[in-house]
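User: What would this chain look like folded?
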Amino acid sequence: MQTSSPVSVAPMMDWTDRHCRYFLRLLSPSALLYTEMVTAAAVVHGDADRLLRHSDEEHPVALQLGGSDPDWMAQATAMAAKYAYDEININVGCPSDRVQSGQFGACLMARPGLVADCYKAMQAETDAPVTVKSRIGIDDQDSEAFLRAFVEPVVAAGCRKFVIHARIAILEGLSPKENRTVPPLNYERVYALKRDFPELEIVVNGGLTDLESVNAALEHVDGVMIGRQAYHQPYFLAELEAHFDSTWSAPTRARIVERMLPYVEQELARGTTLNSMSRHMLGLFAGRPGARAWRRYISEHAHRPGAGSEVLINALNAMPPAARPDTMHAPGKNDRIQHGT
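Assistant: Here's the prediction, encoded as structure tokens.
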């Protein structure tokens, strides 16, 4: 899998589902999008199609799997291979109690040999690259030596790409939310890893919220992963796309809404609720005049029974006239809104 962009969007539980990814793809044609973490056990023993299904428009898209049993991870990867993901990623970064109780996530940094075994078992089941997402350390294991000791056996197993969240994970005493903001970020440790392993693809994650910080990181590593900023202010992805591809013109926010409508109509016809899609769009006008009116209208109307795509159109038209983008009208029964370019 090749992408022209050094940008990826982090796997975020309850956020980066298939509806969110379709929306984000409209904002960035080339960023690598990651799924929410899916456990290998859920794929093997549950409704695999519901968990793995995605639209062709989402590519390039990576599946993140959570688990620590090489056999289950291999089975889940084999099943995922049928869905043509561009990358399969092993979660070695989540610090939540629930994940720890399953003996995976960040606690696996203390068991690099097991991660290597999972990698080998998974890579044998797919042609897509298997990669690892981790922290820089855990608890009191907070050193370059620890991170290197984790990476080396996984590299020896064949892994060539690591996504590193540039802060340690505190496995006891902090909530997952707190683990996203404390302790402080340590980008230099990620940069040192790249210097130690120049042949590896190293992607840094954590606290990258503006173009300046992204450019600074890319002086040292191969890629950047954007997390909450991509969700709360998704137009940032369009700005990044335009920055890294001078041939691409960012569509207006209103145009993004228009291009989302055919997908919304299609999913509504399948029984998907509007709210499950529109909730990912609330931040589209973040920082712009009229953003509050946009959010309020959707929040008040999208959850109602029978809510349709007209809610999004009306939300645009509810914005103050001075801030209002191109006014749109609800399509009639004989109208067909086409995907734009």
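The chain is about 40% helix and 15% strand. If you want, I can go into more detail on any region.
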